[in-house]
# Entry
Amino acid sequence: MNETDYGIYCKKCFLKKHKLSKKNLDRIVYTPYVEECANCGKKEKLVDYIEEDD
Ligand SMILES: [Zn+2]
# Structure
């Protein structure tokens, strides 16, 4: 996964670009702020990163 995609897409657009397993879906960490999605322009919390499994 390209790390530069973190923090710029809303969940919907992020999932369009990256196929996440159900396990990883539960690990999505969102930004603490609302920002404009780089793809659809919707203002909402963006996908900050996916928490890694230990
Ligand atoms: Zn979007």
Observations:
- The mean pLDDT is 92.
- The pocket of zinc ion is lined by residues 9-10, 12-13, 37, 39-40, 42 (CB under 6 Å).
- The chain has one domain: 3-50.
- Residues 3-50 form one domain.
